[in-house]
Write a structure and sequence with these properties.
The structure holds 2 protein chains of 2 kinds. Chain A is α/β, with parallel strands linked by helices. Chain A folds into 2 domains: about 35-55 and about 315-435, Lyase, Ornithine Decarboxylase, Chain A, domain 1 (Beta Barrel); about 60-315, Alpha-Beta Barrel (TIM Barrel). Chain A has 13 helices and 22 strands. Chain A has helices spanning about 40-50, 60-75, 90-100, 110-115, 135-140, 150-165, 195-205, 225-245, 275, 280-295, 310-315, 405-410, 435-440, and strands at about 5-10, 15, 35, 40, 55, 80-85, 105, 125, 145-150, 170-175, 190, 210-215, 255, 305, 315-330, 335-340, 355, 365-370, 380-390, 395-400, 420, 430. In chain A, the strands form 3 sheets. In chain A, strands 5, 15, 16, 17, 18, 19, 20, 21 and 22 form a 9-stranded mixed β-sheet that branches. In chain A, strands 6-7-8-9-10-12-13-14 form an 8-stranded parallel barrel, surrounded by 7 helices. In chain A, strands 3-4 form a two-stranded antiparallel ribbon. The longest helix of chain A has 22 residues, at about 225-245. Chain B is of the alpha+beta class. Chain B has a single domain (about 1-80), classed as Arc Repressor Mutant, subunit A. A 3-stranded antiparallel β-sheet of chain B has the order 2-3-4. Chain B has a two-stranded antiparallel ribbon with strand order 1-6. In chain B, strand 3 (about 15) and strand 4 (about 20-25) form a beta hairpin. The longest helix of chain B has 17 residues, at about 60-75. Chain B is globular. Classes of the chains: A alpha/beta, B alpha+beta. Strand 1 (about 5-10) of chain A pairs parallel with strand 5 of chain B, so a sheet runs across the interface. The complex binds pyridoxal-5'-phosphate. The site of pyridoxal-5'-phosphate (PLP) has 16 residues of chain A, from helix 11.
């Protein structure tokens, strides 16, 4: 029986000393235990809200946003962020960004309606994406939202609906281009190099039915090269200047999309992301320089819009999880099984997420593979991590999970967990309930002839 | 189970096996177990001592002891000739 007067238990462990191949961290773990998130005890959070549990730091979002905003406004006079809903469209998270002054950037009717329901003024919603329905377009035109046209079929749809509504919608086109980055994303929008983009702009101008307001691109995600953004900015500026020359028409904004990296560590990268990935200042510098160099009249610089997603929210998200069991694999390697799987941690396919125990530990470590609970071979949270000796029931904190996990998560064999946000006064608030069986079975129907069976 | 005779272990958990030239590190509870083994204590005795000393349960001790023995064996530190 457990007895608190006894000494704290740690399981016995042996580790070979590799001569000439010193472990990067010796016998030491690379970090301290993370017992608290924003001053709130991890163990208490798990007790109160359950495990696994997503935790969002409101403070980290606001600090990251303030830093990013400052990086750009220091260098360029007119900057506007638009929150990329798909990155994390929990209403509470969107509200934090809207409170900070972010517009909304949406890519579907579902996201559009979410932004409206969140109280965002239609004029401050940017509507991207290749799949807008007639109803979506009609709604966006009525609300005077910014429609970013992805292909010619959509352009004609917009012209059609605008005529019916007798309105002149504000539009931009999405441009794709070679920025020296491989792979090049050429499936969205109109290509720059082949002249498609210029053709589309001409069609819009000659139609007289659309108010050409901006130029948009989104060159990729987790981009590690600031110069690629400079190239993108030069090419969009080029189109803007050509429009001025030919049509005496000035566009109001250049929207460079998202794509800046967070501080996460990409799989296979030798250096941790916080050392290897360029910071937002480097991107701000490259972009601002390109724009300022391109436009001759400093009073007529276009507004710079940024749809930054990942870089603004990744670091603010944590996942608390519990150790279910420890195992020894046939290879001799240690395996730790936790209660959070890849179905709610989609980004484990991309990143070597930092994992920290939530309770004090000794400096003894073991090389461990961390598995989720899914009964599937692909359910690996970390392939190889040096972790202190964890016991069943111990809590761990997985870092930098704020981007995409809470939108791309899948319900699979278990129910998706709760999400809390910790406010600036260190109070946790529930912002999404966990699912129940009914959440799912309510959507299902069993036809009459399948209802009865005997076993 | 016995620890191979010529294997030496220091107080702070450094193990050297002159037969293979390999060295290892173990944590304090590992040092304890290896010393028990050197003293020819029985498995049941060792487990009981650990259970008395540490705040844990017998299932955990059972599982971890077994795993540790397995690791010692895989590291060629056990004398298997005596069996
Ligand atoms: C059009 C558009 N804007 C913005 C983003 C946000 O990108 P990120 O999270 O890489 O900043 C995306 C993401 O795919 C996107 O498709």
């Amino acid at each position: 029986m457990k007895n608190t007067e006894k000494e704290k238990y740690e399981r016995p462990v042996i580790k070979k000393v590799e001569a000439g191949m010193p472990n990067k961290f010796g016998l030491r773990t690379e970090y301290q235990p993370m017992t608290h998130i924003d001053g709130v005890s991890v163990h208490e959070l798990a007790e109160r809200f359950g495990s696994p549990l997503f935790v969002i730091s409101e403070k980290t979002i606001r600090d990251t946003y303030a830093h990013a905003k400052r990086a750009f406004t220091l260098r360029y006079p007119k900057v506007q962020f638009a929150w990329s809903y798909k990155t994390n469209y929990l209403n509470a998270v969107c509200h934090v960004f809207h409170q900070e002054g972010s517009w909304a950037e949406v890519v579907s009717g579902f996201e559009y309606d979410k932004a409206i329901a969140n109280g965002v003024n239609g004029k401050k919603i940017i509507f991207n994406g290749p799949d807008k329905s007639d109803a979506d377009i009609e709604k966006a035109i009525k609300n005077d939202s910014l429609l970013h046209i992805d292909h010619l079929d959509e352009m004609y749809m917009v012209i059609d609906i605008a005529e019916k509504l007798k309105k002149k919608p504000r539009v931009a086109i999405r441009v794709n281009m070679d920025t020296g980055i491989y792979p090049m994303w050429d499936r969205f929008g109109f290509n720059y190099e082949t002249g498609q983009a210029w053709d589309a702009l001409n069609k819009i101008m000659f139609s007289g039915k659309l108010e050409l307001t901006g130029l948009h691109c989104h060159i990729g995600t987790f981009m590690l090269a600031p110069y690629a953004y400079a190239t993108a900015a030069y090419k969009l500026a080029d189109l803007a200047i050509a429009l001025e020359k030919k049509f005496n028409h000035s566009i109001k904004y250049i929207d460079l999309g998202g794509g800046f990296p967070s501080k996460n560590t990409l799989k296979g990268s030798f250096l941790p992301g916080k050392d290897a990935n360029p910071g937002i200042d480097e991107f701000a510098e490259a972009i601002s320089t390109a724009l300022i160099n391109s436009f001759s009249n400093p009073d007529k610089l276009p507004l710079l819009i940024l749809e930054t997603g990942r870089a603004l929210v990744d670091d603010a998200g944590y996942l608390i999880s519990s150790v279910i069991a420890n195992k020894r694999l046939s290879s001799g390697k240690r395996a730790t099984i936790i209660d959070a799987g890849v179905n709610i941690m989609f980004t484990s396919f991309w990143y070597d997420h930092k994992i920290t125990p939530a309770q004090p530990f000794t400096h003894y470590t073991e090389d461990t593979v961390v598995y989720g609970p899914l009964c599937m071979n692909i359910d690996v949270i970390r392939e190889n991590v040096s972790l202190p000796l964890l016991n069943k029931g111990d809590k761990i904190v997985i870092h930098q999970v704020g981007a995409y996990n809470m939108t791309q998560w899948m319900q699979f064999i278990t129910l998706r967990p709760r999400i809390v946000i910790i406010d600036l006064d260190r109070t946790p608030h529930l912002i999404r309930e966990s699912e129940t069986n009914n959440t799912l079975t309510d959507l299902e129907l069993v036809p009459e002839h399948l209802k009865k069976f005997e076993l | 189970m016995k620890i191979s005779k010529n294997v030496s272990i220091s107080e702070n958990g450094f193990i050297f096996n002159p037969t293979t030239g390999e060295s290892f590190t173990v944590n304090p509870i590992g040092v304890e177990i290896i010393n028990f083994l050197k003293e020819n204590k029985t498995e049941a005795d060792i487990k009981k001592q650990l259970l008395d000393k540490y705040n844990t349960d017998s299932a955990t001790i059972e599982k971890d002891y077994y795993d540790f023995m397995h690791m010692l064996k895989a590291s060629n530190l056990l004398d298997t000739s005596a069996e």
